[in-house]
Amino acid sequence: MQILPFRGGALVCFIASLLFVASFCNADAKTVEVVGAGECADCAENNLEISQAFSGLRVSIDCKPENGKNFKTRGSGELDKQGNFKVFVPEDLVENGELKAECYAQLHSVSAAPCPAHDGLESAKLVLKSRSDGKHEFGLRGKLRFSPLTCASAFFWPHIKFPPLPKWNHPPLPKFPLPPFKGFHHHYPIIPPIYKKPLPPPSPVYKPPPVPVNPPVPIYKPPPVPVYKPPPVPVKP
């Protein structure tokens, strides 16, 4: 009767030690997430809804090590209807609160093909936004701008091609003979065409030629005769 309490106390101590170790391990755990948003470049010009342009698009976080040449995908996620995304990446990418490699966000179409970036790689580069209680949040320098013409969403993806219908292997339908056509054994008279007598051409109307009008004869007036007056005679005082 005294062994049961001892076993129960040992079990309680074992569970408490496990919880203490788990809490100690979780204290050093880090959460690294990347948040950002996409932007449709020409949706307004093409009268396209934003939710249709973002449907089925995904984003991947590609990092290039310091001593490496090729990019490696460290996380991926899907864009929501507003174009926002959140991707969790491994915690080994962060050291002392900074990224150990250059990481960029790459947008992918619904067919998993990479989409060209309108603003270059600098707008898709990861930068630190906040850090608190072991949580590191990274964002982009800009937005992932794209065009639906070069980055097709699920709205523009072609429909599923179903297999062709099976061939018709049944025998052809029988041909039923038509009843004979009964003639009336007489011909209808041919109505001659009715021709209308053409109208005579209109008689020409002759008008006399116009009488030329001569300009009026100018009237010349002789110049006026000058009147000469004798000079005044001086008067002596």
What does this molecule look like?
14% of the residues are buried. Mean pLDDT is 80; it is low at 1-8 and 21-28. By secondary structure, this protein is of the alpha+beta class. It contains 2 helices and 10 strands, in the order H-E-H-E-E-E-E-E-E-E-E-E. Strands 1, 4, 8, 9 and 10 form a 5-stranded mixed β-sheet that branches. The chain has a domain at 28-146: Immunoglobulin-like (Sandwich), CATH 2.60.40. It comes from Gossypium gossypioides. This is Proline-rich protein. Residues 1-29 form the signal peptide.
Summarize the structure.
The protein is α+β, with helices and mostly antiparallel strands. It has helices at 3-27, 50-54, and strands at residues 31-40, 58-64, 72-78, 84-89, 94-95, 98-99, 102-108, 126-132, 135-140, 144-146.
What are its keywords?
three-stranded antiparallel sheet; Immunoglobulin-like; 10 strands; flat; alpha+beta; five-stranded mixed sheet; signal; Proline-rich protein; disordered N terminus; 13% helix; 237 residues
Topology (elements, then pairings):
Layout: H1 3-27, E1 31-40, H2 50-54, E2 58-64, E3 72-78, E4 84-89, E5 94-95, E6 98-99, E7 102-108, E8 126-132, E9 135-140, E10 144-146
Parallel strand pairs: 1-9, 1-10
Antiparallel strand pairs: 1-4, 2-3, 2-7, 5-6, 8-9
Keywords: Signal
Protein name: Proline-rich protein
Signal peptide: 1-29
